[in-house]
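Usage example:
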Amino acid sequence: MKTTGATVAITGTRDRLRAWIAHHRRVCIGTLRELLESPLSSLMTWLVIGIALALPAILTVFLQNVSALSGDWGGEPRLSVYLVQTAGTAEARALADTLERQGDVSETRFISSEQALVDFRNRSGFGDVLASLDRNPLPHVIEVVPVTADPLELGSLVARIEADNLVESVAVDLAWLERLYGLLQFAKRLVTALGIVLALGVLLIMGNTIRLSIENRRQEIEVIKLVGGTDGFVRRPFLYLGFWYGLGGALFALVLLEASLLFLSSPVEMLAQSYQDDYALSGPGLMGILLLLLLGAFLGVAGAVLAVSRHLRDIEPR
Amino acid sequence: MIRFDDVSKRYPGGNDALSRVNFELAGGEMAFLTGHSGAGKSTLMKLIIVMERASRGQVFVNGVNLNRVSRGQIPLVRRGVGVVFQNHQLLFDRNVYDNVALPLTIAGYSPRDVGRRVRAALSKVGLGDKEKKLPVQLSGGEQQRVGIARAVVNKPPVLLADEPTGNLDPALSLEVMNLFSQFNQVGVTVLIATHDLELVKTMGCRELILRDGSLVAGGDL
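Running the assembly step on the lines above writes:
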């Protein structure tokens, strides 16, 4: 048997690894160049993915802002004790002092009906209406900060305060805070559900885009398989294609997110100023940006994996 | 190098493409596979590169029993067999160099090795100056030679050709055949399916003749 030149050349493992890495790099850059060479259709896909990712991202950032805002008020409950209209300022102050001396109250703040009226007039802009009233409709209010947040002990404190003749009613601010938390929780769930649905959407868009790409390169795939290309080799460019679609889509989502933050920032600041607060919207932060990009890339690759595993096997040389 | 052991192939629908084919091609041998259209030449070729599987019997290529080859191992079998296709099977969006480099890239050769081997293969088939050209810029005969360069570039022990001279004039056909015979002289096992009986006579090699799926000459019984 003559063997000269007919032996299968064996290259070393290190050479193979180097060639494997070189091929990855070439495919990685090659697929990006391919996408940039047909900018219009790539842009369409990037935009679709971008919009699908931007919607939950914007809502998440919005929710984070609301959470942070409500966190500023603290989890500590606050009681607003509304006094009867007939209560005099002196006896109201005295009641506030009495309450403050009690063991389960850490702090009280007395807001006289006059002061409440001034505040209300300044903040609400209903000055003219208030001026037309012949008497102050607002009662004295004592704000009570209890020591405990335990609902049971709080209940007994509320009952004791309510028993006083001067007290008209006690509002537990915890209730609306709890409601806000409940609402936030609900909104978070909603955003999560929306995010999952839209992520699934991205996955399907990706799968379909990659499927078309596979269809377009059918002949190439057949030839590669004929000359001994492994499934991994055939799969590689499509996975990188998915990666670039996902990453590009996430970048567009980021642009949309920043744009909407910019769009909302001035009204939010105006709103905050009307509450005498210097609150400003906070963005997604570095971690948020990284997370979004990672998520985009992951969804792109995952969609590509789905498409490739479904369609690549069907293409065999005939 | 190639051994068919009582091989039959029946396609779904009951069409017997090959029945009880026996032959062995030793390492470094060159043979022609002839027969009328539909005699089973293509099926026999397809069995060797596992595009089809035998319904009965066993096919050995480079010492490997193809019945035992899993789907994932098929690429490795194909890397040991260079194939020249009648319709060339070139990639028309890549230049000549990239077409010929494909088997090497797939097998994981370093870029430097790839360059060396591709240039060697191209100069061997007389296309050393065409590496930057696209396949559409080449004549039919040149495209065929690009296909040949690709088939031999990773120096496979076995070379198959399916009607390699189908679209060429006699002079070019002889040139291509001489090329195959040069590869054979350096130890490559060559099997060429062809209609061109004149050419087969000229080359004076072993001839396997198929008729209606049976090997009627050139095989071992």
